[in-house]
Amino acid sequence: MIKLIASDLDGTLVRNYEQTISTETFDLIRQLKDRGIMFVPASGRQYANMRRLFAPLGYEVPYISENGSLCIYNDEILSTGQIPPDTIRHILDALMEYRSKFHTGHCILSVKDTYYTDSNDAKFMDYMHNTMGNIVKQIPDLYAVNEPLLKAAICDFNGTKDLLPFFTDKLKGEIRVATSASHWIDFIAPNANKGTALKALMERFGIRKEECVCFGDQQNDVEMLKLAGTSYAMDTAVPEVVKHADHVIESVEPVLKEILAAQI
User: SUPFAM superfamilies annotated for this entry (predicted)?
Assistant: First the structure.
């Protein structure tokens, strides 16, 4: 019997970077709850962004945010992680090289309640505020941030073809670099990812591997998919994700309906 369903958002439950979830999907999630099945959004997104997105449900759900660096249920932090200050400095050093070479690269450093960025690019700030609905604070110097950092991420609107190999090479052996969207790379905290957060949630509620289903499409979903008893990759997923999935699908909703039908 399935007891927990964890799904990535962008590119998986939410397609084409939309900022709302359909009424049909919310209805399915409510039906799952009525059958005793927990639904968990698992994303690289900001915690505040995710809470706002799922507010129409009318009840609290567990959240895996910031690629697993923050797992929260009913305001209780079940697990957390952070990137060491020395690694952040190395990421920023590499960022300065990338900007010098490619003349782009918009960085965010994430703490629990906001993103910090040194970008003053109007397109990027409009995207972060008005398209994504994030809480973002512009500061002149990212090196000056001295708070515990949950995540670092870099956006290049030209895509990840330059981003991923450049930062993978520069940070080799120090931190995992993963695609999180077609134009984003994320730096995954050494002690936290979507898989470690999901494991903490499963332990908290006594849920076994075979009782868990996961959906994803990007490299930052791999650990979560490997942990689940049954895993699904989207047909638009990157090859690494498909390799670790049991099934490839076009849409999450039909699978949710199948799970509901099996519980009757």
Answer: HAD-like
Please give the sequence-ordered ranges of beta strands (E in DSSP) within the chain, or none if there are none: 4-7, 38-41, 63-65, 70-73, 76-80, 106-111, 114-117, 136-138, 151-155, 176-181, 184-188, 212-216, 230-234, 247-249
Shared domain for 182 and 90, answered yes or no, is yes
Separation in Å, CA 61 to CA 39, 42, 103, 254: 7, 11, 41, 21
Q: Look-up: residue for tokens 């990812």?
A: 193
Pair 160, 205 in one domain: no
DSSP 8-state class, residue 109 = E
- Single residue among 138, 171, 188 that ends a domain in this structure: 188
Structure confidence by residue, pLDDT tens digits, 224-258: 999 999 999 999 999 999 999 999 999 999 999 99
SS3 label, residue 170? helix
At position 153, the amino acid (one-letter code) is: A
Residue 89 sits in the same domain as residue 183: yes
The residues facing 106 across adjacent strands are 155
Does the pTM surpass 0.70? The reply is yes
* DSSP 8-state assignment for residue 42: B
Q: Which tokens belong to 14? A: 């939410």
The structure tokens 């898989």 sit at 195
Number of domains in the chain: 2
CA distance 69 to 64: 8
Q: How much is the pLDDT for 85?
A: 96
Measured in degrees and rounded to the nearest 5, phi and psi for residue 160 equal: -105, 5
